[in-house]
Write a structure and sequence with these properties.
Elements (H helix, E strand, L loop, with lengths): L7 H6 L4 E6 L13 H17 L2 E2 L22 H17 L4 E6 L5 H14 L3 E6 H4 L2 H7 L9 H10 L24 H7 L13 H23 L10
Parallel strand pairs: 1-2, 1-3, 3-4
């Protein structure tokens, strides 16, 4: 059920056990992937899992914060403070509407701190459990280990494969010189460092991408997210007991 497409009487009667919120960013992803890659992939995984599990699907939050790639044309970055306030207010409103569990499907690393802060603040006062899933980290770990030949990165083999599988019409031919991997030995901040690390808005080896790899990763990701949603609907938290 798509939250934004329901009438208010329909929403009043809807199952509010779990709602799913995809979030991302608009930023450069190499010369071959769309600017909305992080949001698009979060939407793809969230939509399919929510549909299969019968959960409410919130409209996505497309915007996020990025301080490394904002020099590339088309990138839109909002401040971390604005992002935190946006997440906090949306989470609080979801809780006010009677949702018991909110699953946030995040597609961008720069959003993580703001998501965590907002989730902690809202969970302190609202009767709602918030689960933040950084999907490219938390989901399909085994599938990634099986199919990927090179390290995960930015607009790399993993991301390029996933977008080819989900939105093939949005992927341009990978240039021959697109592969690039540059790291700093220490935590270095500043424009010179960002320009050196992301000369092409790529960190990784997109030349090794394939649709088949992306399809296997996405199948596993959707299934794992679906299982999480069903567990929450049944009152089970995603606990791991260690012995």
């Amino acid at each position: 059920m798509r939250w934004a497409e329901l009438t208010w009487p329909e929403f009043e009667k809807a199952d509010k056990a779990v709602a799913v919120l995809p979030v991302g960013v608009v930023e450069a992803h190499g010369p071959h992937l769309p600017l909305g890659t992080d949001a698009l992939m979060a939407i793809y995984v969230a939509e399919r899992a929510a549909e299969e599990a019968g959960a409410l699907l919130l409209p996505p939050i497309w915007y996020g914060t990025t301080y490394v790639l904002d020099r590339f044309p088309g990138t839109i970055s909002i401040s971390a403070e604005t992002l935190y306030r946006l997440y906090r207010d949306v989470f609080a409103e979801v809780a006010r509407n009677g949702v018991k569990n909110l699953v946030v499907v995040n597609g961008h690393g720069g959003n993580i701190d703001a998501l965590r802060m907002a989730a902690k603040d809202v969970a302190r006062s609202a009767d709602m459990t918030i689960v933040v899933v950084n999907w490219w980290i938390d989901l399909a770990k085994e599938a990634r280990r099986r199919v990927l030949e090179t390290p995960e990165g930015h607009a790399a083999e993993d991301e390029t494969s996933e977008v080819i599988a989900a939105y093939p019409h949005l992927v341009k031919a990978v240039p021959r010189d697109a592969d690039e991997w540059v790291e700093m030995r220490y935590a270095v901040y500043g424009r010179r460092a960002y320009e050196a690390m992301y000369a092409k808005a790529v960190q990784g080896y997109p030349s090794r991408a394939s649709r088949e790899k992306g399809e296997e990763i996405l199948r596993a990701a959707v299934e794992e997210l679906k299982s999480l949603i069903l567990d929450l609907k049944a009152g089970r938290l995603p606990l791991e007991r260690r012995t």
